[in-house]
Amino acid sequence: MIGKPACILLLLSGCVKSPAPPDVAALASTARTQLAERERKLTSYRFHGMATDVARNETLAFDVAYKSPNKLRGATQGATPHVLAFDGKDFRDLDVRAKKLTTYSLAGLPKGRADAFLHQVFAAFVPEGFRSPLLPAGPGLTAQPRQGERGPELLLDARIADGPAHYAFTFRFSNPAMDLLEKTISGPDGESRVQVLKQTCEPALRLCFPQELLESHGGKATVRTVLSEIAINAPVADAEFSLAVPEGGTEEHRALAAQP
Question: What's the pTM?
Answer without folding.
Answer: 0.85
